Amino acid sequence: MSIGRQLLEELRRDEELRRNLAEELLPEVLRHRDLRKAMLLALSREMATKEDIEELKSYVDARINDVNRRISDLYVVVKASRVAIIATLISTILVPLILRILFHS
């Protein structure tokens, strides 16, 4: 087996060795414009694009609109419940009270 293949095998097995080698090579890579450019291109593929952000924004906007609609629906239900409670109170408390006042006078 060639020395190169032996080195690759050892690098695959030994994480600390890979890290040490990377630390040794990184300053050299950063000194060369074409290597820096290659690194930046590789990194840029992992970054979010404007389109990714727009998709996310559209999703978040849709979710917010859905929540706002649900809150609006809930507000209508609460308002109707309040009216029903007031009507119930009137019919169970005030009507008998008014009838008692009218017929016991």
UniProtKB/TrEMBL annotation:
Q: Can the keyword Transmembrane be found in this entry's annotation?
A: yes
Tagged with keyword Transmembrane helix: yes
Give the top-rank taxon of the lineage listed in the UniProt record for this protein: Archaea
Keyword vocabulary terms for this entry: Membrane, Transmembrane, Transmembrane helix
Q: What residue ranges are annotated as transmembrane? A: 83-103
Full protein name: DUF1640 domain-containing protein
